[in-house]
């Protein structure tokens, strides 16, 4: 039995009309004898017999529109060589299927979907939590998370427009590590944003909390810890002098802020806040630096927002503007809130060599820059030279940070101020 | 006031005929040129009946000479006509490549707008209909790389008509690629009369949040099929039909990729310097930070389009697209 | 121009010899050889159309009606000459010694179909119109530089003369006096476009004037005339006299390819009439009948013989191993580039069911 089918005989045709049968049922036909005339939108064509035999059955009617692949009629072959013919027919059908595969057909697709269903089980895709929020992160940042096997979608971003930075991922990893050995608690919850955007947090639990308890117990009357440092600002003065000759004015405070921001990036613990109720220390990636300004009404602290993203020049100009606003009593609430760290530049006021500044609640630390004095300094090769030395004092919340960390932090700050060109290394 | 728009059910090739019919009627400057487009109605019947209706001057059987009639159409376009030229298969456009590259696409610039070439070159393209060799090329990138010509490639009857009318009305040359594999594969309701689909705008053909699948022309049904299969497995795809390959709709790409963060690009052309790479560049420019996985491309190969005995291997299949979708999902 | 380029004929449509110069050719054996070859390729052509309608091969370009042009010209060649056919000239290629199986494979979408038998110089069929004309000029010129006496024959249709490549190829060949015969089969239709719409010239042969080369117009359905004129042109070529343009006037009865319908663009009754009046095979039958040499038994024998040869080729084609996807990649460069290596590896891995 040979099924005579309609094939795509016209480069992309999908169907044809049956015009007339050129044979009758019972007719004996030779291979290649015309059997039926079909009409497509491109042509009229005769479909010939693939094999010799007797026309057995018409499966479609003249006038009917049939799609490619439809069996039009059946030929029964002469009894001799039946097996051979059946074989031929199978092959022919296969050939036909092959042809169908070129188009997007149902048969083809069904086969495909079953194959895939068999080989892959659902739920093996990397997005476990579906329909999660959109994440902004560079592929490198994502790689850090991937390498540490943390789900980046659980980290909140501190960068522009909520972008997750490398630091955010590291802080998150650190937070997981801190938490792991002590208490087996599920990942930290996000704290309600206290300032503007969502922040990174370190659980204020476990060892850290134990330390804090002790600290508070022993030092609760003096939660502040202050330490002093001398910073050689000779190079900075010289550098500012060079710029001045080029008619560029950058205040020393702007340098301090920039240096501070760089140091804070490396010691984020000081740009943080302690939230005892939530049992969390919240690390803040934005450096909103408050500058204590003395006015007639008393101390006021305008805030330079996002110091970490700003150039020295921007910081200088903004500071100037804020200071002017402060002196003219034009500051808005926005200008004076949201600080994450505070500095006090008491030098210009001719102030002291040192003080124990008060931390702006709920910040973790504060740095005061004191008066600069020319002092004889013994160099490494035992020469005595005159250098400009500035005293700096730093107060910090001892519940949050240790003294050693604070010393490292101020050392780094001093290094950056002593060698202003090192700021270049931090340019992004 | 309520207006009723009559529609009719057409295949893609019929929609193209309808667009030319509409514009021949609308503007006397529209003139069709090409080999066998007159009495024969075109090798794919795209101009069926139009010579009978509009005469031999407006629907002209040209000599067998692609450089000749494309060049002549440039001259006619400069001199007030709106020629719509048919190349029988994209694989036969190359004799006229010089005319398109050095003249059609840059006359406006050379003459600071004094001479312009508002012509359309229609060309069926792509494999999958068991046509002989060289009839199956998908070399759209040769033209997207060409400054000064727009490249359009619809996949549905509605878009085909609207885009062809837009192309005819466009003041600059447009290469209008017709996926011959889609010519008769689907029917769609197409409005009667004149309407346009904006050149340079893609279309969302399926909505999903997990993966963006970007395709055009004959690969759109393949992408849709793959996306439908993936849906059953719980992966939801945004499927974008770019429709225009130059200029590419970057907004639709950015919007989708920023949502999904995972992209699969499907085209049948060769991968090297393919339009898929331009899509990738757009993703890089607009959506770098949203990317969750490296973008996968499912394409033909850097080989000539093989004879049709091999075209099943060369052409992206839904299965290959699904494989790529799984790959970006599992990254 | 028609006077300047008269149609050369040896045997007219009624089977009468009209040119006594070629009497040496008009022997029973020679005529039967021509006849046999023409029957052979006609049986092949009809079988191929039938195979296409049954979905067993892809789009096919039939040549029925042009047998005399193809057989006469191909038989004039020396065995080591070059042949540059178009997609409609596999009758000539078969006559010249191409493999039937490979020709069928070509129409079934397989690259193997473009591989000529060992020792035969047969170019793959020219698909984009006229592009093979400059190739033939170049290949022939190469033989001239090498100092051989090999020549080339280049087939093309009437429509091809409108392409730039026609002019560029003929001009090049005429400048370097390349040993090539530009053999035009003017079947008077380029798909649907009749020659009057194709060109303003009355003849194709006259185009030779522009290159100052011989231009010959021949009855393309007269196998003797085609044979004789091709032979002369080849002799001139081998003698260093450069190219010749031959216009063989003929007619294709059927469609351009199986993908179109000639009823759309011309009255097929003309084909029917021509079949009765000027058919190249019937013409030889008339001669044989006139000579009392026509033997119906012999005819059905050679038809049967042709049929068996072709059925064997069909069966070889159908039993040919499935397309090996590696072939797509392995013949792009002598040494595959990393891009292709990578794509091959990925794809083979993919169809092997492995995950990369």
UniProtKB/TrEMBL annotation, chain A:
Pfam families: 2-oxoacid_dh, Biotin_lipoyl, E3_binding. SUPFAM superfamilies: CoA-dependent acyltransferases, Peripheral subunit-binding domain of 2-oxo acid dehydrogenase complex, Single hybrid motif. Residues 1-76 form the Lipoyl-binding domain. One of its GO terms (molecular function) is acyltransferase activity. Residues 136-173 form the Peripheral subunit-binding (PSBD) domain. Keywords: Acyltransferase, Lipoyl, Transferase. Its EC number is 2.3.1.-. PROSITE patterns: BIOTINYL_LIPOYL, PSBD. Its cofactor is (R)-lipoate. PANTHER family: DIHYDROLIPOAMIDE ACETYLTRANSFERASE COMPONENT OF PYRUVATE DEHYDROGENASE COMPLEX (PTHR43178), LIPOAMIDE ACYLTRANSFERASE COMPONENT OF BRANCHED-CHAIN ALPHA-KETO ACID DEHYDROGENASE COMPLEX, MITOCHONDRIAL (PTHR43178:SF5). Belongs to the 2-oxoacid dehydrogenase family. This is Dihydrolipoamide acetyltransferase component of pyruvate dehydrogenase complex.
Automatic annotation (TrEMBL), chain B:
One of its GO terms (molecular function) is oxidoreductase activity. It is an enzyme of class 1 (oxidoreductase). InterPro entries: THDP-binding, Transketo_C/PFOR_II, Transketolase-like_Pyr-bd, Transketolase_C. It holds the Pfam family Transketolase_C. Its cofactor is thiamine diphosphate. Gene3D superfamilies: 3.40.50.920, 3.40.50.970. Keywords: Oxidoreductase, Thiamine pyrophosphate. Coiled coil: none annotated. Residues 10-185 form the Transketolase-like pyrimidine-binding domain. Its EC number is 1.2.4.-. This is Alpha-ketoacid dehydrogenase subunit beta. It comes from Robertmurraya mangrovi. The lineage of its organism: Bacteria, Bacillati, Bacillota, Bacilli, Bacillales.
From TrEMBL, chain C:
Residues 37-325 form the Dehydrogenase E1 component domain. InterPro entries: Alpha-ketoacid_DH_E1_comp (IPR050771), DH_E1 (IPR001017), PdhA/BkdA (IPR017596), THDP-binding (IPR029061). Residues 257-278 are annotated as: Disordered. Gene3D superfamilies: 3.40.50.970. Residues 258-278 have a biased composition (Basic and acidic residues). It holds the Pfam family E1_dh. SUPFAM superfamilies: Thiamin diphosphate-binding fold (THDP-binding). Its EC number is 1.2.4.1. Keywords: Oxidoreductase, Pyruvate, Thiamine pyrophosphate. This is Pyruvate dehydrogenase E1 component subunit alpha. It comes from Robertmurraya mangrovi.
